[in-house]
């Protein structure tokens, strides 16, 4: 029996080990590339964080000191526990039970701390001061409206005097608190500086005219009630606190969103107050002449105040239809009333017109711009479709922003305020741009990028509104701008017909940032970007960025480096299916290189068919050239003059430069030539191989 030798199994490989080794090799290559870039450009910092310094070990303390330290630590721990318990108690105690609900109630101390007045008050920003001014204004209006009413009309009687006095005392307390507590704390400006010293503010207030009027307004002339009775005319000095009333108007308009509404209400109040004073004067004149004594005076029937107010309205507005005055006093009173009515009423109407005009000034400007644009388009016969889009742009821009150009409003502000507004509005969006962040291989936040450069860039951003369907950028265009989506959505289109939605970008997204620092004037757009709806975008162009970077050379160098890194990252092909690794002995040899593209183009196909087509084209070209040569040779011989013999020279030297000058000329007979195609390695490393095509004539036998 013949013995058979056992066959040895082929070499086996571990797929997991191969994958781990390949991953390790990939990481080592990336690390080597990082260090190469670090050597080429020292601006980029090291990708590895420096190890922290190891703390020095203190010498061991003696045993007695250890015991003392342990005791101190225990005492400190007990104190901290007591503090934590004391802090936790108020939060647990302040709960309020109401029906079936239990809710937390803040302690009284917090209310007291919030209500505690500071040493000085900023009248422009402190809302508590505005609330206090409103309370004083209410007291002032009470005195202005009811002191003439109580003095003229018999509404204050002995039975209700106590109620009038109670309200008067409350108003006087408001005046006193304002004089003693609030006004001495108000800050003021001196030489451009805000004075916040309590002693200085008190001194400034006491030296002002406002302090003198406030003192006169609270002077207690009410003491004379004991001598002259309860006469409301003794309180006329309370109407001198008009400075507080106008100050409240200014502060309230400064904090209101729609201040024109309050202006209209205030102007209407002025008109009603003048009519109120006129009604009081008419009743006083009627009482002086005698109630019902003539047809002109009040006859004493109906509600006395409403009848007198009705007469004041018809007289002051010069409606007419009133009874003719009879006596000299009545004639003079009526004439003065007419003159005052014409002047006051016309001034109030003019003020009302200014208030309404200021409230609608923006809307009027918008309408005038739209009308001018429409008339321009009609003059040049612009298509209706374009006109409708222009109107839509105007309407949406005005509704969304309240103005047509935000830069016009911001340019009126100082640069610092403009920068503060731009930081609050745009800094969070610009901070998302990869170009202005740290490099992808560093863990630092803003590695060397100057913050002031970012601020200057924020001031140069332009806001543009795109309508639905508008192209933000088209494929093939030179990219010179960066876009930041402030509001709305845009879609990136691609595919063979350019209508497939590749991705949808929303508010806060950024695209086109690589175009700002691309060399050679910009790179071309690779896809169409279309506004999905109404989109508000910020734009920063390349020219503006270059003007900014002139003052920041270090940031320019860093940004150029980041742009190269981002271009490398975005230029990588998308991850495809994993490539199968060769097994066994095949893994020792490299993969077969792909056929060069130039060689494929010359062949025009696969295998011998492509080469046959190339040879066929060569033959057709040669036959055409031979025919043209035969036709031109006899004509040239006839015209050619006789020339002397040229000096002897080797023919090889004459033919050689001609061959060098025109290496691409194909010689003329198909039967006497051969085509040689070869691939030779390039003399420079990393350039691959060189394709050579040679056409040689066959040697004559």
Automatic annotation (TrEMBL):
<feature type="transmembrane region" description="Helical">
    <location>
        <begin position="129"/>
        <end position="149"/>
    </location>
</feature>
<dbReference type="InterPro" id="IPR014710">
    <property type="entry name" value="RmlC-like_jellyroll"/>
</dbReference>
<dbReference type="InterPro" id="IPR000595">
    <property type="entry name" value="cNMP-bd_dom"/>
</dbReference>
<feature type="compositionally biased region" description="Pro residues">
    <location>
        <begin position="49"/>
        <end position="61"/>
    </location>
</feature>
<keyword id="KW-1071">Ligand-gated ion channel</keyword>
<keyword id="KW-1133">Transmembrane helix</keyword>
<dbReference type="GO" id="GO:0007601">
    <property type="term" value="P:visual perception"/>
</dbReference>
<keyword id="KW-0406">Ion transport</keyword>
<keyword id="KW-0812">Transmembrane</keyword>
<dbReference type="GO" id="GO:0001750">
    <property type="term" value="C:photoreceptor outer segment"/>
</dbReference>
<keyword id="KW-0140">cGMP</keyword>
<feature type="transmembrane region" description="Helical">
    <location>
        <begin position="329"/>
        <end position="349"/>
    </location>
</feature>
<dbReference type="Pfam" id="PF00027">
    <property type="entry name" value="cNMP_binding"/>
</dbReference>
<keyword id="KW-0472">Membrane</keyword>
<dbReference type="InterPro" id="IPR018488">
    <property type="entry name" value="cNMP-bd_CS"/>
</dbReference>
<dbReference type="GO" id="GO:0005223">
    <property type="term" value="F:intracellularly cGMP-activated cation channel activity"/>
</dbReference>
<feature type="compositionally biased region" description="Polar residues">
    <location>
        <begin position="668"/>
        <end position="681"/>
    </location>
</feature>
<feature type="compositionally biased region" description="Basic and acidic residues">
    <location>
        <begin position="619"/>
        <end position="641"/>
    </location>
</feature>
<feature type="region of interest" description="Disordered">
    <location>
        <begin position="618"/>
        <end position="701"/>
    </location>
</feature>
<dbReference type="Pfam" id="PF00520">
    <property type="entry name" value="Ion_trans"/>
</dbReference>
<dbReference type="GO" id="GO:0044877">
    <property type="term" value="F:protein-containing complex binding"/>
</dbReference>
<protein>
    <submittedName>
        <fullName>CNGB3 protein</fullName>
    </submittedName>
</protein>
<feature type="compositionally biased region" description="Basic and acidic residues">
    <location>
        <begin position="62"/>
        <end position="88"/>
    </location>
</feature>
<dbReference type="InterPro" id="IPR005821">
    <property type="entry name" value="Ion_trans_dom"/>
</dbReference>
<feature type="transmembrane region" description="Helical">
    <location>
        <begin position="260"/>
        <end position="284"/>
    </location>
</feature>
<keyword id="KW-0844">Vision</keyword>
<feature type="domain" description="Cyclic nucleotide-binding">
    <location>
        <begin position="445"/>
        <end position="549"/>
    </location>
</feature>
<keyword id="KW-0547">Nucleotide-binding</keyword>
<dbReference type="InterPro" id="IPR050866">
    <property type="entry name" value="CNG_cation_channel"/>
</dbReference>
<dbReference type="GO" id="GO:0005886">
    <property type="term" value="C:plasma membrane"/>
</dbReference>
<dbReference type="GO" id="GO:0030553">
    <property type="term" value="F:cGMP binding"/>
</dbReference>
<keyword id="KW-0142">cGMP-binding</keyword>
<feature type="region of interest" description="Disordered">
    <location>
        <begin position="32"/>
        <end position="88"/>
    </location>
</feature>
<keyword id="KW-0813">Transport</keyword>
<dbReference type="GO" id="GO:0005222">
    <property type="term" value="F:intracellularly cAMP-activated cation channel activity"/>
</dbReference>
<dbReference type="InterPro" id="IPR018490">
    <property type="entry name" value="cNMP-bd_dom_sf"/>
</dbReference>
<feature type="transmembrane region" description="Helical">
    <location>
        <begin position="211"/>
        <end position="230"/>
    </location>
</feature>
<dbReference type="GO" id="GO:0017071">
    <property type="term" value="C:intracellular cyclic nucleotide activated cation channel complex"/>
</dbReference>
<keyword id="KW-0407">Ion channel</keyword>
<keyword id="KW-0716">Sensory transduction</keyword>
<feature type="compositionally biased region" description="Basic and acidic residues">
    <location>
        <begin position="686"/>
        <end position="701"/>
    </location>
</feature>
